[in-house]
C-alpha cells in the first residue's frame, strides 16, 4: 500500500503541475502574441524632482522616483527618434508602432463601439502572433489595400458580418468606408469583441493624429527579462514603459496560487505514504526485537541493523519513483488529448500540458524526503536495541 501511495503521489504531482503550468505558459504565449512583451506609451516631464542626478568619483547617475507629480504627454511625439534609440537594445526583437483610438463600427443593421488599432502589418507581425490568429481571409488582402480592416470574430458575430462586407467607421474626423479583409481570433474575449486592425496611415487620417499619439509594442528574444529592460528603457527615453509581467500581474498571481495549492494538496498523498512506511517499520521493529538482538550478538553493528530498514525503504522508494514517473508520463500524454474548448483568457481546443523535467524532480525530492524520514526513525530505534538486555528478558 505504501508503494501504491508513492506511485500515485508522484504521478498526481506531475499531472497537476503539468496542467497548471501548461495553462499558465499558454496564457503567457497568448498575451505576448496579442499585446507584446513591452508597451511604450506616454512621455513625461519632470515637474517635482522625479529625476535627480548624483555625482560620485566623476560619474553622474540619474535616479527616477515616483512620477505622481509628473506631467504626461499623450503618445510618442517623435517615433523615428525613439525607434532609433530602441535599436540599441539587443534584447528587443521587434518594434511596432500602433495608433489606438475608439470608433463606432456600423455594419448596416447594427453598430458597435470598437477599439481601432492602426498598424504597419510587417512590423506588427514581428511583435505579435497575428499571422496565426487569422481564421478567415488573409493578411495579404489586408496588406495590399489600405481601405480594408481586420475584425475580431466576436465583433463579426454580433454584427452579423462576413468576409468581404463593407462597413462604415464613424467618429474621429469623419466617416470611412472599409472592406473586411479578414477575421481574427486571439481567444481573449475582451480583444475579440472590441479590437479591429486598420492601416496606420488610415487610422492617423481618421483620428486626426498624423504626427503624434502612437504607442510602441515591442517583442523580446527573452520575454522573462522584460521588467529590467522596461526599467532601462524608461530611464533612457523618458516614456512610460510597462512590461507584460506588470500588465498581467493579477492573472500571473492566480496561476501561481493554483500551482502552489495543487502541489501542497497532492504532496499530502506522499506524506500519507511516508506515514504508512513508518507504521510498518515501527511495528516490524517491535515484532523483530528478539531477531535484532540475535543479529547484534552475532556481530552485526548498529549501522548494519539500520541499513536493513533503510534499504527496504530505499527499494520501495526507487520502485515507486519509477512507476510513478511512468504513470505520470502516460497520464499527462492522455490528458493532453482530452478535448476541451476554452475561450476567455486564451483559446484552446484541448487540455494544455507543460512537459517539464522539474515537475518530476520536485515530485521525487518530496517523495525522498518523506520516505527517508519514515525509514530513518524506526531504523534508528532498531539500532539502539541492546542484545544482552533483550536476550536476558526473553530467557
Structure in words:
With 395 residues, the chain is an alpha+beta fold. The protein has two domains: 2-27 and 251-394, no CATH class; 36-244, no CATH class. The chain is built from 15 helices and 15 strands. The strands form three sheets. A six-stranded mixed beta barrel has the order 5-6-11-8-10-9, surrounded by four helices. Strands 2-3 form a two-stranded antiparallel sheet. A hairpin with a 2-residue loop joins strand 9 (166-171) and strand 10 (174-184). The two termini are 36 Å apart.
Topology:
Elements: H1 2-35, E1 38-45, E2 51-56, E3 59-64, E4 71-73, H2 79-86, E5 92-106, E6 111-119, H3 121-127, H4 130-133, E7 134-137, H5 139-144, E8 148-152, H6 153-159, E9 166-171, E10 174-184, H7 189-192, E11 195-199, H8 200-207, E12 215-220, H9 226-237, E13 239-243, H10 244-247, H11 249-287, H12 289-297, H13 302-336, E14 339-342, E15 348-350, H14 357-383, H15 387-394
Parallel strand pairs: 6-11, 8-10
Antiparallel strand pairs: 1-4, 1-12, 1-13, 2-3, 5-6, 5-9, 5-12, 7-10, 8-11, 9-10, 14-15
Helix pairs in contact: 1-11, 1-13, 1-14, 11-14, 12-15, 13-14
For the termini, the CA-CA separation is 36 Å
Largest sheet, in brief, is: 6 strands, mixed, barrel
pLDDT under 50 segments (min length 5)?
A: none
* Total E-strand runs: 15
Order of helices and strands: HEEEEHEEHHEHEHEEHEHEHEHHHHEEHH
Rg from alpha-carbon coordinates:
32 Å
Structural class: alpha+beta
Side-by-side strand order of the widest sheet: 5-6-11-8-10-9
Mean pLDDT: 83
Count of all domains: 2
Strand content: 15-25%
Number of helices: 15
The global form is elongated
Helix content: 40-55%
Amino acid at each position: 500500500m505504501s508503494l501504491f501511495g508513492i506511485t500515485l503521489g508522484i504521478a498526481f504531482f506531475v499531472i497537476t503541475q503539468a496542467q497548471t503550468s501548461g495553462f499558465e505558459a499558454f496564457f503567457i504565449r497568448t498575451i505576448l502574441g496579442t499585446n507584446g512583451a513591452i508597451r511604450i506609451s506616454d512621455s513625461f516631464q519632470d515637474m517635482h524632482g522625479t529625476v535627480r542626478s548624483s555625482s560620485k568619483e566623476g560619474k553622474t547617475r540619474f535616479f527616477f522616483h515616483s512620477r505622481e507629480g509628473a506631467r504626461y504627454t499623450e503618445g510618442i511625439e517623435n517615433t523615428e527618434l525613439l525607434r532609433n534609440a530602441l535599436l540599441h537594445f539587443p534584447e528587443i526583437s521587434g518594434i511596432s508602432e500602433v495608433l489606438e483610438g475608439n470608433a463606432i463600427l456600423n455594419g448596416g443593421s447594427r453598430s458597435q463601439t470598437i477599439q481601432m488599432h492602426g498598424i504597419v502589418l510587417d512590423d506588427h507581425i514581428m511583435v505579435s502572433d497575428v499571422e496565426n490568429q487569422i481564421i478567415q481571409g488573409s493578411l495579404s488582402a489586408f496588406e495590399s489595400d489600405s481601405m480594408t480592416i481586420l475584425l475580431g470574430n466576436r465583433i463579426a458575430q454580433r454584427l452579423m458580418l462576413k468576409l468581404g462586407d463593407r462597413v462604415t467607421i464613424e467618429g474621429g474626423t469623419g466617416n470611412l468606408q472599409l472592406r473586411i479583409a479578414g477575421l481574427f481570433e486571439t481567444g481573449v474575449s475582451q480583444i475579440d469583441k472590441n479590437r479591429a486592425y486598420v492601416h496606420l496611415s488610415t487610422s492617423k487620417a481618421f483620428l486626426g493624429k498624423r504626427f503624434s499619439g502612437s504607442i510602441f509594442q515591442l517583442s523580446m528574444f527573452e520575454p522573462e527579462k522584460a521588467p529590467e529592460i522596461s526599467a532601462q528603457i524608461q530611464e533612457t527615453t523618458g516614456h512610460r514603459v510597462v512590461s507584460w509581467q506588470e500588465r498581467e500581474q493579477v492573472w500571473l498571481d492566480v496561476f501561481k496560487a493554483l500551482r502552489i495549492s495543487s502541489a501542497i494538496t497532492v504532496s499530502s498523498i506522499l506524506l500519507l505514504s511516508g506515514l504508512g512506511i513508518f507504521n510498518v517499520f515501527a511495528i516490524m521493529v517491535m515484532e523483530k526485537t528478539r531477531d535484532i538482538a540475535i543479529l547484534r550478538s552475532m556481530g552485526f553493528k548498529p549501522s548494519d541493523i539500520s541499513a536493513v530498514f533503510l534499504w527496504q525503504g530505499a527499494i520501495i522508494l526507487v520502485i515507486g519513483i519509477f512507476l510513478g514517473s511512468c504513470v505520470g508520463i502516460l497520464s499527462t500524454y492522455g490528458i493532453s488529448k482530452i478535448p476541451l474548448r476554452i475561450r476567455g483568457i486564451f483559446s484552446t481546443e484541448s487540455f494544455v500540458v507543460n512537459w517539464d523535467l522539474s515537475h518530476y524532480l520536485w515530485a521525487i525530492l518530496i517523495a525522498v524526503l518523506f520516505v527517508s524520514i519514515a525509514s530513518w526513525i524506526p531504523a534508528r530505534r532498531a539500532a539502539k536495541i541492546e542484545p544482552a538486555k533483550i536476550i536476558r528478558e526473553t530467557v
